[in-house]
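Residues and backbone
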Amino acid sequence: MPALLGLGAPAPIERLCVDTERHVLYALNAASGLQVFDLGAYGNEPARRVAEVSNVYAAAAGAVGGRELFRGASADRKGAAVKYIAPIGG
């Protein structure tokens, strides 16, 4: 019954990634959802969630140029999933 009410358990976390330059923790779950946590100015504060994207494909398609990137049949993405995350250094 909880799943019918939208109260199902959250997807399990599959990967964690720390960006030590920006003091940010990224979490990737089994449903390809992303969460972003701020670790404070020096990276030593308790994690505070600052962003979450549960549908990466919808967010990407809504971005500038996203419609062209995800053009085509939805069946093309049916088995697609985010498998890896990593910070990009500056």
Observations:
- The radius of gyration is 16 Å.
- The chain is about 10% helix and 25% strand.
- The chain has a mean pLDDT of 81.
- The beta strands are 13-19, 24-29, 34-38, 48-53.
